[in-house]
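ERR on first pass: missing label on line 2. Operator R.T. fixed the label and resubmitted. Corrected input:
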Amino acid sequence: MYRVAVDVGGTFTDVVLQNESTGNIIGTKTPSTPSDQSIGLMKGIQKICEENDIELSQIQSIMHGTTVATNAVLEGKGAKVGLITTEGFEQILHVARSWTPAPISAWMGFIKPDPLADLIYTRGAKERIDAKGGVLTELDEDQVRSEIKSLYEEGIESLTVSLLNSYANPTHEQRIREIAEEIDPNILVSISYDILPEFREYERTLTTVMNSYVRPPMQRYLTNIQNKLEDLKLNSRLSIVRSDGGLMSIPAAASLPVHTMLSGPSGGVTAAAMIGSQTGNRNVISFDMGGTSTDVSLTYDGTPRVSRETKVGVFPVKSPSLEVVSIGAGGGSIAHVPPTGALRVGPQSAGSEPGPASYGSGGEDPTVTDANVVLGYLPPSLVGGEMKLDVEAAEKAVQRVAEKLDTDIYHAAQGIYDIVNENMYGATRVVSVEKGYDPREFSLLALGGAGPLHANALGKLTGSFPVILPPTPGVLSALGFLQSDIRNEYSRTYIHKLSNLDRENLIAALNDLYLDCHSWLEQEKVEEDQRLIRFEVDVRYFRQGHEIPIKVTKEELDNVGVSILAERFSSIHEQIYGFKMEVEVELVNIRAIAIGKVASPSIPMVGEGEVDASGAIIDHEHKAFFNGEFKSTPIYERNLLKPNNKIIGPAIISQKDTTTLVLPGFTAAIDKNLNILIEEGTSL
Amino acid sequence: MKNIDTITVDIIENALKNIKEEMDVTLFRSAMSPVIREQHDCFPMITDASGQMVVGNFGSHVPEVVNQFPEGIHKGDVIFVSDPYSCGGSISHVNDWMVILPIFSGEELVGYSSMFGHVMDVGGPVPSSMPVTATSIYGEGVRFPPVKLFEKGQLNESIIRIIKANTRTPMENYSDLMAIVASCRTAEKRVQELCERFGIDTYFGALEALLERTNTMMRELITNFLPTEPVSFEDYIDDDGLGNGPFKMKLTIWREGDHAYFDWTGTDKQSPGPINYYLSEPMFKMFIGSFLISVFDPAINFNDGFYDVLHIESPEGTLMRPVEPAALGCRTHALSRLFDVLSGALSINTPENSPAAGYGTSPYFIYSGYDQDGRYFNLMEVMYGGLPGRPIGDGLDGHSWWPAFVNIPTEYLETYYPLRVEYYRTGKDSGGAGMNRGGNCNEKLYTCLAKGTISIHDDRSTLQPWGINGGEPGGSSSKTLIRKDGTRQDLDSKVDNIEVEPGDQILFITGGSGGWGDPLERKPEQVCMDVKRELVSLEKAKESYGVVFDPSTLEIQREETVELRNQMRRQRGNLEAFNFGNRADVVKV
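pass 2 clean. output:
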């Protein structure tokens, strides 16, 4: 039997097939179909089956990363959302916490996107609950009924209910949902308590509204897929990949689509963690460099960091996701020289149209890719590449920057290369040093088409070795999906000072969340022995701004008591911020995480070769520019490389979907899984 | 200057920007004061070895401060200062606590990192320590001249004891101070890494080049955009809370070659009350730089490099340069109004390029007392208002003029303080009409749940925020105390120690903002959306914008609208570049 993972990207849909008994993996690509992603999805599955002589019925399960929800937000194509708030707080999304950007005076140029629920379709309900969950004003059912009716008459497609302090008492939200469903059972209702029962009303409301906004398009999409699966009489289990790298079923994805906003990027992070572990490096910083942006993330001790707030466009969404820092630096980033005479790279990008000058589609601006061409890092005729690069156009483009900098094109190109690396270095610091991790204790893993050209140089900056280049950096997200487990989280706000916290009360509250997890795993049909439920408690100093999630077990609470939370918090606080305080500690949120283990067969190894890699050289004469001069830089064909091969830099390793650069002073070794590992030094 | 390639300069510039961000993050995550943590009232800086700012958000004061230590500055020293008068006004009231930390690479001094933040309370007669009635700085709480908080790495415990004895919030202040130190240490570590990576000479060379770059850029901006003939602009602060006022702020600007002159002559003399703003020259230069850059070229990174091309005149004894020991606690009115004046002066020849005036201050709501459990509480909330109509579009309703500030969630307030928020919205019609509408104010109604005291800081309650380029002025601010029995009492915009009982309410309305451009040029469809969103009333739509609606369907009545607009155009005569609203009635010449 087989498993298939599908990652739908902007241009291509990547499909990876794994044989469940041998663990063998095969990948393919098919063009994406943006108007209905499910067409590309099904084509990709059919294609990989045909290519490998497999019956569709042999596919046991499908793991699918989707951008339907994200695209709906970024392109403004979600549902017409109605919002019910507590009366007096209707303008919550309009005011959006009053934020304007820095520095002083920058508000003058600040363009603010419209909220996902227009003020016109936002209505106040007469009701009020206090911070402890007590009812101050009973819900006026007639009033809210007539408001909902009027919203529905105006063509609302999806309704959100988010009331003040509902995290402490959801009864009014739940009652309003009942009323709405009485009026029209076909209109989907999302209530904030279900999506995010945590305090801070703006973030909770926004996240719930976003869920409403993407729910109808997501449901249409999922229905399309299900119909197509039925047409093909496929009985495979289809799972949707969540932003936190977990899997969920179609019904779950249909009601909680906001948890899929970072579905795609999470695959790359999961894959990076997996490949890191495979090479014996459980601490990995991974960077996924594409055409317009680079995503950076961090895996510590084999586990990627989960963040509970992420940004979709400018909107801060509170939904668990694998932490990814994104910066506007990619192969298509444009270099320019403002009047100060500084050399800047990005954030403007040539995109895919017209693309870098060297693509020969009319682009004239010098991009990072063009700099790589000029430097000889990106050979003009790529082995297996479908495209020939126009060196002359690249030189002409870089010349424009060189003139302004009063230097030659090679130094200008080197400058562009160095600056984009420095920008990415900044992003790696955000995920590492700013969170209390020393990048020198990590290895660096490159994904995406452009990553391997910059990986060695970036590793030099961060001091993260080895630098790891997996065999197929282009389809790594899909590979990551194959490693995913079924996952969900249940949390609630639970504000208690540690000094007057009753252990039994806390255990009971955790137990409620445990039961939620349990019944969810039931629904997802996870076998008993594959279930795992973990607890986390968000802790901070009394009235401090940021909470730190602390892992804890019921046994520890039983044996040691709640003091264990303060101890763990203090030591983590000291690790991250360099100091701790004798201040009271309080709990803010508690959370249970449900995991259903999915068995994933390991990837098989390949036969061994020798140290000498000269058999893989396809161009002995090539030269590239390093530190002010051109050096002999042979080009190797990656497919010809074997385990144990070693290559002393400078060298270029070329393959269908990417090009790897090994710098002078570094050595690349091929491991048993065909990863390239780059280390400092030049001894074989 | 050491010959150093421009790309290395760019790399070091990027690295310094990253370090500045990291300083902020470190502080936000570990500070206790909500004003720092939630509202980001704090400012980082990194300087070169001579104390010139190379990256940061405020003007450098380092040379002036370090010179006050005859024994010199050593490795492991950490300087702490909260006295505006001993650092040239770099911090402008005693609530701002500043830390300066020398950075050594090996044995060589390579620069300073510095950060200041607004701490919750520094003693004095009123919680939060910004008494509205202070008449000298001695009445505003404890003041620290530059002292060494750490001496060669050793914490000076006496200072901590003095701090704790002089504030209502000892634990919070202590941890905020440590968080500020931690943030400066972060910068220290990163700058040391940079010096190791590039070598000290290259690092210094890059800093010099960065300063030079900004200098070149600023000369170009000055030449292109500032007038050779002096232009003046005036705006006013309503009062000083002691019954004096309004206070005039007057700025005159011109350029000679590529040097620019900013002259505050004509500004009223200093106030007996605490609204004086000790304007630090480097700080003002930074403001000017920041403003010009935002208007004309937001990509520029600014630093101290351009300071020699700006020349500031601020006569001693005036509102902008008070003489010690003048009270300074409530200086945010003048500090924000300064931007309205600067913007106004720069736009006299080209009003179409500049925004109108906004809520123009930093309104505070301060509530303290003992809650139901007998625990002391002290809430200081920064409020926001209307951001002005701008050349690129409408002003934002109820937003922060201060960069990256955010409001405090109602659920946070209700969890930690004995109060309830009854409504929190923006004020219909308070944004001045314009082709680009001025932003509306904020309206927030609090119910107090514990006995305690209230203080209020606000301005623009008398004089309206002006409109520009044909736009109308915005609404004024107001405060009302509603007693439990229903009696209403208007409060002044600057009051202290109003005693409240459980059930009493405060209605806090901030200032709106002026509109930009002719309101009759605003698309009727835009006015229609404003009406449907309840941001503009039907009456205002008709009276200011000349747009007529069917009141039951809110459909635009096209013909009536065209007719009304034509009639209004005929009747009103020429539009003024600036519309000061009620100024002529309030200000007696």
